[in-house]
Design goal:
Distance between the termini: 46 Å
Radius of gyration: 16 Å
Oligomer: single chain
Helix content: over 70%
Length: 116
């Protein structure tokens, strides 16, 4: 059942994104930003962690999880270090993913030629 719920929840998040493209005619940037903000809001209200417990990778793989990570890290560090922790916490939790994206993007740019 774990795989079923991961597939269902992850698929539902993707369906919401596709509806935003097709019905509301939002650009990819607007859709991406909206999903990140929704993930952040859900974490702010304490609703995203139960979703992760329920759906596993279905909730941690989509972009909504990035918003969750930003808020979660900021809140954890704010408890320890106050206002400075809000800023450092966001970067501490998400830095490995962002760093990986930069490194792999650079490797891709070096190894492959764009069509044009």
């Amino acid at each position: 059942m774990t795989y079923f719920w991961a597939f269902t929840v992850g698929g539902l998040i993707c369906v919401i994104g596709q509806i935003m493209f097709d019905v509301f005619k939002l650009t990819p940037g607007h859709t991406l930003s909206t999903l990140v903000v929704v993930g952040a809001i859900l974490d702010g209200f304490g609703l995203y962690e139960p979703l992760i417990d329920f759906a596993g990778a279905g909730a941690t793989v989509p972009i909504t999880s990035f918003g969750n990570s930003l808020v979660h890290g900021a809140m954890q560090e704010a408890e320890k270090h106050g206002l400075v922790g809000v800023l450092t916490g966001m970067f501490e939790v998400t830095s490995s993913g962002i760093s990986a994206a930069i490194v792999f993007g650079m490797l891709g740019a070096l190894l492959f030629k764009p069509k044009g």
